[in-house]
Predict the 3D structure of the following.
Amino acid sequence: MNCSSCGGAELDIQREALSIQTRLIEYGNGEQTFAGLLAWDDALTGKRPGVLVAHTIRGRTSFEEGKARDLAALGFAAFALDVYGASEIGGDGARSRANMDTLIADRGELQNRLMLALSTLQQQQEVDAKRCAAIGFCFGGLGVLDLARLNAPLAGVVSFHGLFEAPGNLENERSHCKVLALHGWDDPLATPSVVLSFAREMTALGIDWQLHGYGHTQHAFTNPAANDSQRGTVYHAAADRRSWIAAQNFLSECFD
């Protein structure tokens, strides 16, 4: 092993970390203010593809912000969005559950907030507004799938251990948005029968869709803090690694 080359690699990593910039962005709909975090690599020049990062039940946290930074290191401008409201950032579990339940009961409002976040991302100077995608985790996975159902101006969406239930407020119109669903096969929140219904729905919408099922894997498999086997939320390192590679490959295909 060449120690000098190892030191060079470490310096490259340090430079890359230093070049990743973030900006907190407040945006609103006239009634409520939201707060998202944009991340991009300042060492790159010109506009780059934008990627929304939709949050879990907990709202925007360091988890989603970390994913935005990871995407920035890959050459994207990534926006960790907020659908609960700026005043709800860092809320407790009961409050987060209430916020999520309210939006699941009103999918139209959830969709409006997601589209507002997309518009905000597209307006940023670092972003190529015509080349955007979205990824989401758990509740956020449901959200980005709704963006695909809406035929939002996105090249594709990636759902990590998302919820698959179709909304009741949309017509079954065809969509040009590609879909990648990354799913733990033993997820108690999306059983095999629900997965099959989802596959039929995607086919009916004419979507170019993919489903990667990870065996012996439950809900929240990308979250290292998930460790509740009774509730079926358990981190799975192999599925986490495999799903991130799959997402990178999918995004590369979307922007070829």
